[in-house]
Amino acid sequence: MIKKIFLILFVLFSCSNEISNQSNPENISLFVITEDITLGENRVVYTVLDKEGNNISENVNFKLKKIDDSKEMIIEDYELVDWPGNRSVFKSDLAFDSTGYWEIIGEYKKSNTKGVIEVKEISSTLNTGEKVSSIKTPSLENKKIIDLSTDIEPDLNLYTHSLDIALEKKVPIILSFSTPGLCVTAICAPQLNVLKEIRSNYQDKLIVIHVEIWENFKEIMNTGDFSVGNLNESVQLFGITSEPWTFLIDNNGFVENRYQGFVDYKELKKDLSKINVYDQ
Q1: DSSP 207
Q2: Interatomic CA distance for residues 243 and 246, integer angstroms
Q3: pLDDT tens digits, residue range 117-166?
Q4: Contact between residue 172 and residue 207 where contact means Cβ atoms under 8 Å apart
Q5: Paired strand residues for 154
Q6: Edge-to-edge strands of the sheet including 173-177?
Q7: Which H/E stretch holds residue 36?
Q8: Residues of the chain scoring pLDDT < 70
Q9: pTM above the 0.70 mark?
Q10: What would the DSSP string read from start to end of 44-108?
């Protein structure tokens, strides 16, 4: 069992191809943030940075190709979205018809840069359209809030329901796995704040559940040693290997959408409207 979660790092810690100075005079870099990518359509988040590490958000064109194939496909459908830390990223729904290594090519001014994607046949966790199992997640039913969350200002509503009980209620569910008090990427707390806002604005139209990654997060925080960490059982059952992960589940218990890394209020609101759920 994995003892330490390998997190999605937004800046300078992802994989990208080295491009010669001749084809990349601006010395730009493209980083693919989304790691769990499978056959079919995927929500893919990526970013382009200049040599100082600043976002490039305008006048960028993108292409997609498999590494062993010369055919390039223009990515026409992409959206610039906000990211914690006053950053911005590009988001696309990309479809992959074969496993293996693919690359997103970014073109800016006279420069080209590439970010590599590994497309797998099966996801490590639940994919869109799959049925969610009736799993018990930690809740206020049997624990105190101080034993449920590393959030400094926890919203009790996010810990009221265990997933198995929530599924019985036949309402949409937003289920999110993260550990804001121990998050290396610094996007877990902002993600949790978005979920609090969603819960406040949608009230009883849906159920929002937050699950900590580590069962013994107090011990980790006291020792500063992730090697002593024990994953929550529900994290293991879901196959979560990075954080944060958020799932939108419809009222029949199927995954409507999934979000690796950060997802903002605007995107969640749009996806909720697709299953006829609207805020107050």
Answers
A1: E
A2: 9
A3: 999 999 999 999 999 999 999 999 999 999 999 999 999 999 999 999 99
A4: yes
A5: none
A6: 207-211, 173-177, 245-249, 255-260
A7: none
A8: 1-21, 280
A9: yes
A10: EEEEEE-TTS-B--SSEEEEEEETT----EE----EEEEETTTEEEEEEEEEESS-EEEEEEEEE
